[in-house]
Protein backbone atom coordinates (compact mmCIF):
# COMPACT_ATOMS: atom_id res chain seq x y z
CA UNK A 1 0.00 0.00 0.00
CA UNK A 2 1.30 3.41 -1.01
CA UNK A 3 -0.48 6.70 -0.40
CA UNK A 4 0.70 10.05 -1.74
CA UNK A 5 -0.57 13.52 -0.90
CA UNK A 6 -0.21 15.87 -3.85
CA UNK A 7 -0.33 19.63 -4.09
CA UNK A 8 2.62 21.75 -5.13
CA UNK A 9 4.73 18.71 -4.26
CA UNK A 10 4.19 14.99 -3.72
CA UNK A 11 4.74 13.30 -0.35
CA UNK A 12 4.14 9.79 0.87
CA UNK A 13 1.64 9.58 3.73
CA UNK A 14 -0.45 7.05 5.70
CA UNK A 15 -4.14 6.16 5.91
CA UNK A 16 -4.53 7.92 9.26
CA UNK A 17 -3.21 11.17 7.78
CA UNK A 18 -5.71 11.23 4.90
CA UNK A 19 -8.06 14.22 5.08
CA UNK A 20 -10.38 14.71 2.13
CA UNK A 21 -11.43 18.13 3.50
CA UNK A 22 -7.97 19.58 2.90
CA UNK A 23 -6.82 21.29 -0.29
CA UNK A 24 -4.67 18.28 -1.12
CA UNK A 25 -5.69 15.35 -3.26
CA UNK A 26 -4.46 11.80 -2.76
CA UNK A 27 -3.09 9.00 -4.89
CA UNK A 28 -3.67 5.52 -3.49
CA UNK A 29 -1.78 2.58 -4.95
CA UNK A 30 -3.43 -0.57 -3.59
CA UNK A 31 -3.83 -4.26 -4.17
CA UNK A 32 -7.43 -5.58 -4.53
CA UNK A 33 -7.30 -6.94 -0.96
CA UNK A 34 -6.10 -3.60 0.44
CA UNK A 35 -8.83 -1.84 -1.51
CA UNK A 36 -11.48 -4.14 -0.04
CA UNK A 37 -10.11 -3.45 3.44
CA UNK A 38 -10.31 0.33 2.97
CA UNK A 39 -13.71 0.25 1.29
CA UNK A 40 -16.30 1.36 3.82
CA UNK A 41 -13.58 2.91 5.95
CA UNK A 42 -12.53 5.82 3.73
CA UNK A 43 -14.13 4.83 0.42
CA UNK A 44 -17.67 3.95 -0.56
CA UNK A 45 -17.26 1.94 -3.74
CA UNK A 46 -19.82 -0.47 -5.16
CA UNK A 47 -19.17 -4.14 -4.35
CA UNK A 48 -19.37 -4.96 -8.05
CA UNK A 49 -16.37 -2.67 -8.63
CA UNK A 50 -14.39 -4.39 -5.88
CA UNK A 51 -15.17 -7.80 -7.40
CA UNK A 52 -14.14 -6.47 -10.80
CA UNK A 53 -10.76 -5.53 -9.36
CA UNK A 54 -10.28 -9.07 -8.06
CA UNK A 55 -11.19 -10.74 -11.34
CA UNK A 56 -9.38 -10.61 -14.67
CA UNK A 57 -11.88 -9.59 -17.31
CA UNK A 58 -9.14 -8.10 -19.56
CA UNK A 59 -11.74 -5.92 -21.26
CA UNK A 60 -11.22 -2.19 -20.87
CA UNK A 61 -14.27 -0.17 -19.85
CA UNK A 62 -15.44 2.89 -17.93
CA UNK A 63 -18.37 3.29 -15.53
CA UNK A 64 -19.73 6.45 -13.95
CA UNK A 65 -21.08 6.60 -10.39
CA UNK A 66 -22.37 9.50 -8.29
CA UNK A 67 -19.03 10.76 -7.01
CA UNK A 68 -16.40 8.70 -8.80
CA UNK A 69 -15.41 7.12 -12.12
CA UNK A 70 -14.35 3.47 -12.35
CA UNK A 71 -12.05 2.30 -15.15
CA UNK A 72 -10.74 -1.11 -16.17
CA UNK A 73 -7.59 -0.77 -18.30
CA UNK A 74 -4.93 -3.03 -19.80
CA UNK A 75 -1.27 -2.10 -19.87
CA UNK A 76 0.31 -4.21 -22.60
CA UNK A 77 3.79 -5.67 -22.47
CA UNK A 78 5.81 -7.30 -25.25
CA UNK A 79 7.94 -10.15 -23.95
CA UNK A 80 9.67 -12.81 -26.08
CA UNK A 81 7.41 -12.06 -29.02
CA UNK A 82 4.20 -12.25 -26.96
CA UNK A 83 1.73 -9.43 -26.30
CA UNK A 84 0.37 -9.86 -22.77
CA UNK A 85 -2.09 -7.54 -21.00
CA UNK A 86 -1.60 -6.41 -17.39
CA UNK A 87 -5.01 -5.45 -16.07
CA UNK A 88 -5.32 -2.61 -13.59
CA UNK A 89 -8.19 -0.52 -12.27
CA UNK A 90 -8.63 3.16 -11.50
CA UNK A 91 -11.11 5.01 -9.28
CA UNK A 92 -11.20 8.78 -9.83
CA UNK A 93 -12.93 11.33 -7.66
CA UNK A 94 -12.44 15.04 -7.14
CA UNK A 95 -10.28 14.39 -4.05
CA UNK A 96 -8.44 11.19 -4.89
CA UNK A 97 -7.34 8.72 -7.50
CA UNK A 98 -6.95 5.02 -6.69
CA UNK A 99 -4.91 2.63 -8.85
CA UNK A 100 -5.19 -1.05 -8.02
CA UNK A 101 -3.68 -4.18 -9.57
CA UNK A 102 -2.59 -7.65 -8.53
CA UNK A 103 0.92 -7.08 -9.88
CA UNK A 104 3.11 -4.04 -10.51
CA UNK A 105 2.18 -2.18 -13.68
CA UNK A 106 5.11 -0.70 -15.58
CA UNK A 107 3.50 2.59 -16.63
CA UNK A 108 2.24 3.28 -13.09
CA UNK A 109 5.68 2.66 -11.57
CA UNK A 110 7.35 4.89 -14.17
CA UNK A 111 4.90 7.73 -13.55
CA UNK A 112 5.35 7.43 -9.78
CA UNK A 113 9.14 7.62 -10.08
CA UNK A 114 8.85 10.60 -12.40
CA UNK A 115 6.60 12.54 -10.03
CA UNK A 116 8.56 11.57 -6.91
CA UNK A 117 11.78 12.80 -8.51
CA UNK A 118 10.06 15.96 -9.82
CA UNK A 119 11.06 15.17 -13.39
CA UNK A 120 7.59 16.10 -14.59
CA UNK A 121 7.47 19.76 -13.59
CA UNK A 122 4.54 20.40 -15.96
CA UNK A 123 2.21 18.37 -13.74
CA UNK A 124 2.99 20.52 -10.69
CA UNK A 125 2.77 23.82 -12.57
CA UNK A 126 -0.97 24.07 -13.32
CA UNK A 127 -4.26 22.16 -13.02
CA UNK A 128 -3.06 19.76 -10.33
CA UNK A 129 -5.95 17.36 -9.79
CA UNK A 130 -6.89 13.66 -9.93
CA UNK A 131 -8.31 14.35 -13.39
CA UNK A 132 -4.96 15.54 -14.68
CA UNK A 133 -3.21 12.56 -13.10
CA UNK A 134 -5.68 10.28 -14.90
CA UNK A 135 -4.76 12.08 -18.13
CA UNK A 136 -1.07 11.31 -17.54
CA UNK A 137 -1.82 7.64 -16.88
CA UNK A 138 -3.87 7.34 -20.08
CA UNK A 139 -1.18 9.20 -22.01
CA UNK A 140 1.44 6.72 -20.78
CA UNK A 141 -0.85 3.85 -21.67
CA UNK A 142 -1.26 5.09 -25.25
CA UNK A 143 2.47 5.74 -25.62
CA UNK A 144 3.19 2.20 -24.42
CA UNK A 145 0.76 0.82 -27.03
CA UNK A 146 2.56 2.80 -29.74
CA UNK A 147 5.85 1.17 -28.72
CA UNK A 148 4.33 -2.32 -28.99
CA UNK A 149 2.90 -1.52 -32.44
CA UNK A 150 6.39 -0.42 -33.54
CA UNK A 151 7.91 -3.66 -32.22
CA UNK A 152 5.33 -5.73 -34.09
CA UNK A 153 6.01 -3.71 -37.26
CA UNK A 154 9.74 -4.47 -36.89
CA UNK A 155 8.91 -8.16 -36.48
CA UNK A 156 6.80 -8.03 -39.66
CA UNK A 157 9.67 -6.28 -41.51
CA UNK A 158 12.13 -9.03 -40.56
CA UNK A 159 9.63 -11.70 -41.56
CA UNK A 160 9.01 -10.07 -44.94
CA UNK A 161 12.76 -9.90 -45.70
CA UNK A 162 13.15 -13.59 -44.82
CA UNK A 163 10.17 -14.51 -47.01
CA UNK A 164 11.56 -12.62 -50.01
CA UNK A 165 15.00 -14.21 -49.56
CA UNK A 166 13.94 -17.78 -48.83
CA UNK A 167 10.19 -18.40 -49.28
CA UNK A 168 9.31 -21.39 -47.13
CA UNK A 169 6.16 -22.74 -45.53
CA UNK A 170 7.76 -22.44 -42.09
CA UNK A 171 7.27 -18.66 -42.32
CA UNK A 172 3.50 -19.20 -42.53
CA UNK A 173 3.54 -20.23 -38.86
CA UNK A 174 5.39 -17.02 -38.05
CA UNK A 175 2.80 -14.97 -39.93
CA UNK A 176 -0.12 -16.69 -38.21
CA UNK A 177 1.52 -16.20 -34.80
CA UNK A 178 2.15 -12.52 -35.56
CA UNK A 179 -1.48 -12.09 -36.62
CA UNK A 180 -2.58 -13.66 -33.32
CA UNK A 181 -0.47 -11.12 -31.38
CA UNK A 182 -1.99 -8.25 -33.37
CA UNK A 183 -5.46 -9.64 -32.63
CA UNK A 184 -4.64 -9.54 -28.89
CA UNK A 185 -3.38 -5.97 -29.30
CA UNK A 186 -6.53 -4.93 -31.17
CA UNK A 187 -8.82 -6.54 -28.58
CA UNK A 188 -7.17 -4.48 -25.82
CA UNK A 189 -6.84 -1.18 -27.71
CA UNK A 190 -10.25 -0.93 -29.41
CA UNK A 191 -12.23 -0.21 -26.17
CA UNK A 192 -10.02 2.86 -25.57
CA UNK A 193 -12.06 4.72 -28.18
CA UNK A 194 -15.23 4.09 -26.17
CA UNK A 195 -13.46 5.12 -22.94
CA UNK A 196 -12.14 8.35 -24.49
CA UNK A 197 -15.59 9.38 -25.74
CA UNK A 198 -17.22 8.69 -22.36
CA UNK A 199 -14.57 10.55 -20.34
CA UNK A 200 -15.03 13.52 -22.63
CA UNK A 201 -18.78 13.34 -21.94
CA UNK A 202 -18.02 13.67 -18.19
CA UNK A 203 -21.46 12.43 -17.15
CA UNK A 204 -21.01 12.85 -13.37
CA UNK A 205 -18.86 16.01 -13.59
CA UNK A 206 -16.00 14.39 -11.65
CA UNK A 207 -13.49 15.58 -14.23
CA UNK A 208 -12.63 19.24 -13.68
CA UNK A 209 -13.90 21.51 -16.45
CA UNK A 210 -10.40 22.96 -16.93
CA UNK A 211 -9.07 19.42 -17.54
CA UNK A 212 -11.52 18.60 -20.36
CA UNK A 213 -8.96 19.93 -22.86
CA UNK A 214 -6.55 17.15 -21.79
CA UNK A 215 -9.11 14.47 -22.54
CA UNK A 216 -9.76 16.01 -25.95
CA UNK A 217 -6.05 15.39 -26.57
CA UNK A 218 -6.48 11.81 -25.31
CA UNK A 219 -9.31 11.27 -27.81
CA UNK A 220 -7.12 12.58 -30.61
CA UNK A 221 -4.23 10.31 -29.57
CA UNK A 222 -6.55 7.29 -29.40
CA UNK A 223 -7.72 7.98 -32.97
CA UNK A 224 -4.09 8.14 -34.15
CA UNK A 225 -3.33 4.96 -32.23
CA UNK A 226 -6.23 3.18 -33.93
CA UNK A 227 -4.99 4.41 -37.31
CA UNK A 228 -1.51 3.00 -36.56
CA UNK A 229 -3.08 -0.30 -35.51
CA UNK A 230 -5.15 -0.56 -38.72
CA UNK A 231 -2.02 0.27 -40.74
CA UNK A 232 -0.19 -2.57 -38.98
CA UNK A 233 -3.05 -4.99 -39.76
CA UNK A 234 -2.98 -3.97 -43.44
CA UNK A 235 0.82 -4.33 -43.52
CA UNK A 236 0.65 -7.87 -42.13
CA UNK A 237 -1.96 -8.63 -44.81
CA UNK A 238 0.50 -7.37 -47.46
CA UNK A 239 3.28 -9.51 -45.99
CA UNK A 240 1.03 -12.55 -46.20
CA UNK A 241 0.18 -11.71 -49.82
CA UNK A 242 3.92 -11.42 -50.55
CA UNK A 243 4.44 -14.85 -48.97
CA UNK A 244 1.64 -16.41 -51.02
CA UNK A 245 3.01 -14.78 -54.20
CA UNK A 246 6.53 -16.09 -53.53
CA UNK A 247 5.19 -19.57 -52.81
CA UNK A 248 3.13 -19.44 -56.04
CA UNK A 249 6.22 -18.36 -57.98
CA UNK A 250 8.20 -21.19 -56.44
CA UNK A 251 5.47 -23.67 -57.40
CA UNK A 252 5.37 -22.25 -60.94
CA UNK A 253 9.14 -22.68 -61.28
CA UNK A 254 8.83 -26.29 -60.13
CA UNK A 255 6.01 -26.95 -62.59
CA UNK A 256 8.08 -25.33 -65.33
CA UNK A 257 10.95 -27.73 -64.59
CA UNK A 258 8.63 -30.76 -64.68
CA UNK A 259 7.05 -29.55 -67.94
CA UNK A 260 10.47 -29.08 -69.55
CA UNK A 261 11.51 -32.60 -68.55
CA UNK A 262 8.25 -33.97 -69.92
CA UNK A 263 8.82 -32.08 -73.22
CA UNK A 264 12.23 -33.73 -73.55
CA UNK A 265 10.88 -37.24 -73.01
CA UNK A 266 7.64 -36.94 -75.01
CA UNK A 267 9.31 -37.16 -78.49
CA UNK A 268 11.49 -40.01 -77.22
CA UNK A 269 8.41 -41.87 -76.02
CA UNK A 270 6.87 -41.33 -79.49
CA UNK A 271 9.92 -42.83 -81.19
CA UNK A 272 9.99 -45.77 -78.76
CA UNK A 273 6.24 -46.25 -79.31
CA UNK A 274 6.63 -46.35 -83.10
CA UNK A 275 9.46 -48.85 -83.08
CA UNK A 276 7.72 -50.89 -80.45
CA UNK A 277 4.77 -51.64 -82.76
CA UNK A 278 4.42 -55.19 -84.05
CA UNK A 279 5.14 -54.34 -87.72
CA UNK A 280 8.04 -55.22 -90.01
CA UNK A 281 10.14 -52.09 -90.54
CA UNK A 282 13.20 -51.74 -92.85
CA UNK A 283 15.30 -50.41 -89.96
CA UNK A 284 14.69 -53.58 -87.95
CA UNK A 285 16.68 -55.69 -90.44
CA UNK A 286 19.39 -53.06 -90.90
CA UNK A 287 22.61 -53.84 -89.00
CA UNK A 288 22.88 -50.17 -87.87
CA UNK A 289 19.21 -49.83 -87.06
CA UNK A 290 19.70 -49.80 -83.27
CA UNK A 291 22.46 -47.19 -83.51
CA UNK A 292 20.27 -45.15 -85.88
CA UNK A 293 17.42 -45.02 -83.35
CA UNK A 294 19.77 -44.03 -80.50
CA UNK A 295 21.32 -41.25 -82.59
CA UNK A 296 17.85 -40.10 -83.66
CA UNK A 297 16.72 -39.85 -80.01
CA UNK A 298 19.83 -37.87 -79.02
CA UNK A 299 19.41 -35.59 -82.04
CA UNK A 300 15.77 -34.84 -81.16
CA UNK A 301 16.75 -34.09 -77.54
CA UNK A 302 19.58 -31.80 -78.69
CA UNK A 303 17.30 -29.91 -81.08
CA UNK A 304 14.74 -29.42 -78.31
CA UNK A 305 17.45 -28.21 -75.93
CA UNK A 306 18.74 -25.65 -78.46
CA UNK A 307 15.16 -24.50 -79.18
CA UNK A 308 14.32 -24.05 -75.47
CA UNK A 309 17.54 -22.14 -74.90
CA UNK A 310 16.80 -19.86 -77.83
CA UNK A 311 13.32 -19.17 -76.45
CA UNK A 312 14.89 -18.64 -72.97
CA UNK A 313 12.69 -21.31 -71.45
CA UNK A 314 15.76 -22.83 -69.79
From TrEMBL:
Chief subcellular location: membrane
Membrane topology, as annotated, equals: Multi-pass membrane protein
* Catalytic activity, reaction form: Mg(2+)(in) = Mg(2+)(out)
Q: Which InterPro entries match?
A: CorA_cytoplasmic_dom, CorA_TM1_TM2, MgTranspt_CorA/ZnTranspt_ZntB
* Molecular-function GO terms, alphabetical: cobalt ion binding; cobalt ion transmembrane transporter activity; magnesium ion binding; magnesium ion transmembrane transporter activity
Q: Name one GO cellular component term.
A: plasma membrane
Which keywords appear in this protein's UniProt record, sorted alphabetically? Answer: Cell membrane, Ion transport, Magnesium, Membrane, Transmembrane, Transmembrane helix, Transport
SUPFAM superfamilies given in the database record = CorA soluble domain-like, Magnesium transport protein CorA, transmembrane region
* Keyword Cell membrane belongs to the record: yes
Q: Where are the transmembrane segments?
A: 257-277, 289-308
Q: Where in the cell is it found?
A: Cell membrane
Transmembrane as UniProt keyword: yes
Signal sequence range: none
Stated role:
Mediates influx of magnesium ions. Alternates between open and closed states. Activated by low cytoplasmic Mg(2+) levels. Inactive when cytoplasmic Mg(2+) levels are high.
What family, per the record? Belongs to the CorA metal ion transporter (MIT) (TC 1.A.35) family.
Q: What is the name attached to this protein's record?
A: Dihydroorotate dehydrogenase
Q: Which organism is it from?
A: Fervidicella metallireducens AeB
Lineage, opening ranks = Bacteria, Bacillati, Bacillota, Clostridia, Eubacteriales
